[in-house]
Each structure stands twice: as structure tokens, then as C-alpha cells.
UniProtKB/TrEMBL annotation:
Residues 281-315 form the FPG-type domain. Involved in base excision repair of DNA damaged by oxidation or by mutagenic agents. Acts as DNA glycosylase that recognizes and removes damaged bases. Has a preference for oxidized purines, such as 7,8-dihydro-8-oxoguanine (8-oxoG). Has AP (apurinic/apyrimidinic) lyase activity and introduces nicks in the DNA strand. Cleaves the DNA backbone by beta-delta elimination to generate a single-strand break at the site of the removed base with both 3'- and 5'-phosphates. The active site is at 2 (schiff-base intermediate with dna), 3 (proton donor), 61 (proton donor), 305 (proton donor). Keywords: DNA damage, DNA repair, DNA-binding, Glycosidase, Hydrolase, Lyase, Metal-binding, Multifunctional enzyme, Zinc, Zinc-finger. Signal peptide: none annotated. The keyword DNA-binding applies. The gene is mutM. Binds 1 zinc ion per subunit. Its cofactor is Zn(2+). It comes from Cellulomonas xiejunii. This is Formamidopyrimidine-DNA glycosylase. Monomer. Belongs to the FPG family. InterPro entries: FPG_cat, FPG_Glyclase, FPG_N, H2TH_FPG, Ribosomal_uS13-like_H2TH, Znf_DNA_glyclase/AP_lyase, Znf_FPG/IleRS.
Length: 322
DNA sequence: CATAGAACCTGTATGC
DNA sequence: TGCATACAGGTTCTAT
């Protein structure tokens, strides 16, 4: 669910609310949510307890909190991926509005502190000021872990030469994202055109350029007037550039609105929804008129999901012969 | 190596 | 009402 603008909204919230705090207790309610932590839930908790949260960093849809140097620990971080339905909620030592938290009316506040416990709470970190950081995740595709930080080689993911960087090990293969100033956009265009696939698949490939998901891919393609099934190999460089510009633009606008959310499944650290859903031109708009030409937006099956396009603004490519 | 599809899990909406 | 099916913002693993 959360794509770059939503994850960045969460990162910003964490930067403002939990940095400088120390983890005093870790409560793993569901082991599956820390399955990517190889050493298991107990080690996950042990590695976090007593550590201070120093910085909030993001690449694409991954975000992590740098940890201070623990006794005998190397460089590591609390890594989070929200998957399709993950949330990170900062719960202060006060009662949170039940509606904004996505909790039904009448939910029972839990614990002496008095905040409302979300039904899909998977992991809770209790912080030294009495607040808590809750990882909530309905579908459980998201996960938390405490991996080591590694230095990525020059010119790594996506074939984009750029400055060396330190990222958590599971992020080493993820390319820089479209809001990263160090991203080499020309290299992305070049790499995209060497792929033998369709342009929407390339846009969603996080090892080529990261941060774009199904919503913003469709929105970017509509803005660039390209059909997602266009073969990348036959794409003009100017078209590829226009597509990347469109994706950057739509994600920047979404970020300004606090991200896109259709329901309580996506919220910021305070439980509030973003407003960009009102600005979507095609995603989820099937049967409604294209705001540019009036033609009805259509939905097509795409990789166990859907793609939304304007058939007139985004003509399908001519079928190629093999 | 590159690419496409299945698998992972929980819940809601829709149709019969 | 009950039940079956389709679908949902993503990534990793596996098979070609």
C-alpha cells in the first residue's frame, strides 16, 4: 500500500517524534512480523532494548532508524517495510482519538497509559518518555528487523553510478529513488531502455529505480501519456525522461498532501489520513471520465492487480510480431 | 543473468 | 443469511 510519499510521510513523523528516545521495552505480539530478523524475535528485542534512536532514513519504500552504539554492537538499524498495510504509530502518554486510529468506537484502552490498542498491533516499542512506537499491520506483508549497515559499492543498484552509501543489508539491492538528489536519472533512462519488458513493469522494478508502486505508476503513465504495456526497448529516451519526470512530480504532489489513502489502512504516525486520493486521475477511477479528454477510464488485469488507463490518452502499443 | 509468475496473510466487498 | 469468489497500496522466492 504505502509507496514513496506515504513512507516519507511516516519517516518525517518518526524524525519529529521519536528521535533521541531510548527503547526501554520491546513487545513482539506476532513473530511473523519480525520473520526477516534471522536471529529470531528474542534477539530482535534484545538488540533494540536500551538503544537510542538517532536518525530516520528512507530509500524507496524502506525506512530505518539508526541506533546508537550498543555494548558490543556494530553499526545497525531498526529497519521497517510497511508492505501492503503496515503502519507505524506514535502513541503518546495520552488517549488517542479512536476514529483517527482506525479503531472502532468503544475499543477498550489497554494498559495504564491509556492509549487505544489497535486490533492489528504486531510489535510495540516502549520508549523512555512513556510513549510507544506501534507497528500495526493487517495483512502482515510488512516487517521489522535489526540488520547490519553495509556500504554499497559505487555504481550499484540499477546500474546508476552515484555516491557510495551506507544502507541496511536488505536494502543493498534497492536502487535510489526518484526524490534522491544523488539519483542518476540519465542512467535510469539508459538502463530502462536496455530492459526487455514493458514500461510499467520497469517502473515498478525497485532495482531500477525505487519508490514507485501501483498507484503512482498508473498516475505517472497517464501524465506522460504512455500505455504501461509499451515495450521498454522501443521507448524513446525523451519518453522515458518524461515518464520519470511525471513520476517525480506526482509523488512530490502526493507528499505535499500527506500521501494517498482510501481508508484507515494508510495513516501517518498520528493516525491521520492523507488527501491525495482526491487528486488521482486514473487509479481506481474506472468508468469515470478522463479529466483531460472525457473518455472513460478503464481497468485491466495486471500481475494479480489492476492497471488503470485512459484508452485515448494512452493508446496501446501496436502488437509486435515475435 | 533476466524475466514472469506464485507465494506470503488478513480482511472487505460483491454476487449467487 | 451463508458461502464462494475477487480484490487490495509489495517484496521475495522460484521456475523458466
Amino acid at each position: 500500500m504505502p509507496e514513496l510519499p506515504e513512507v516519507e510521510t511516516v519517516r518525517d513523523g518518526l524524525a519529529r517524534h521519536v528521535l533521541g528516545r531510548t527503547v526501554v521495552d520491546v513487545d513482539v505480539r506476532r513473530d511473523y512480523s519480525v520473520r526477516r530478523h534471522e536471529a529470531g524475535p528474542l534477539d530482535f528485542a534484545a538488540r533494540l532494548t536500551g538503544r537510542r534512536l538517532e536518525a530516520a532514513v528512507r530509500r524507496g519504500k524502506f525506512l530505518w532508524l539508526l541506533l546508537d552504539e550498543g555494548a558490543g554492537r556494530g553499526d545497525d538499524a531498526l529497519l521497517a517495510h510497511l508492505g501492503m498495510s503496515g503502519q507505524l504509530l506514535v502513541r503518546g502518554a495520552h488517549v488517542v482519538d479512536a476514529r483517527a486510529s482506525g479503531v472502532t468506537e468503544g475499543a477498550v484502552p489497554s494498559g495504564p497509559v491509556g492509549w487505544v490498542e489497535h486490533p492489528h498491533l504486531r510489535v510495540r516499542l516502549v520508549l523512555d518518555d512513556g510513549s510507544a512506537l506501534d507497528f500495526v499491520d493487517q495483512r502482515t506483508f510488512g516487517h521489522l528487523s535489526v540488520p547490519d549497515l553495509v556500504t554499497t559499492p559505487d555504481g550499484a543498484p540499477g546500474g546508476c553510478g552515484a555516491a557510495r552509501d551506507v544502507v541496511p543489508l536488505p536494502v543493498a539491492h534497492i536502487a535510489r529513488d526518484l526524490l534522491d538528489p544523488a539519483l542518476d536519472r540519465r542512467a535510469v533512462v539508459a538502463a530502462m531502455r536496455t530492459r526487455r519488458t514493458e514500461v510499467k513493469r520497469a517502473l515498478l522494478d525497485q532495482t531500477l529505480v525505487s519508490g514507485v508502486g501501483n498507484i503512482y505508476a498508473d498516475e505517472a503513465l497517464w501524465r506522460a501519456r504512455l500505455h504501461g504495456t509499451r515495450p521498454t526497448a522501443a521507448l524513446r529516451a525523451t519518453d522515458a525522461e518524461r515518464l520519470l519526470d511525471a513520476a517525480t512530480e506526482v509523488m512530490t504532489e502526493a507528499l505535499e498532501q500527506g500521501g494517498t489513502s482510501f481508508d484507515a489502512l494508510y495513516v501517518d504516525v498520528n493516525g491521520a489520513s492523507g488527501y491525495f486520493d482526491r487528486s488521482l486521475a486514473v487509479y481506481g477511477q474506472d468508468g469515470r471520465p478522463c479529466r483531460r479528454c472525457g473518455t472513460l477510464v478503464r481497468r485491466d488485469a495486471f500481475a494479480n492487480r489492476s492497471s488503470y488507463t485512459c484508452p485515448r490518452c494512452q493508446p496501446r502499443p501496436r502488437p509486435r510480431r515475435a
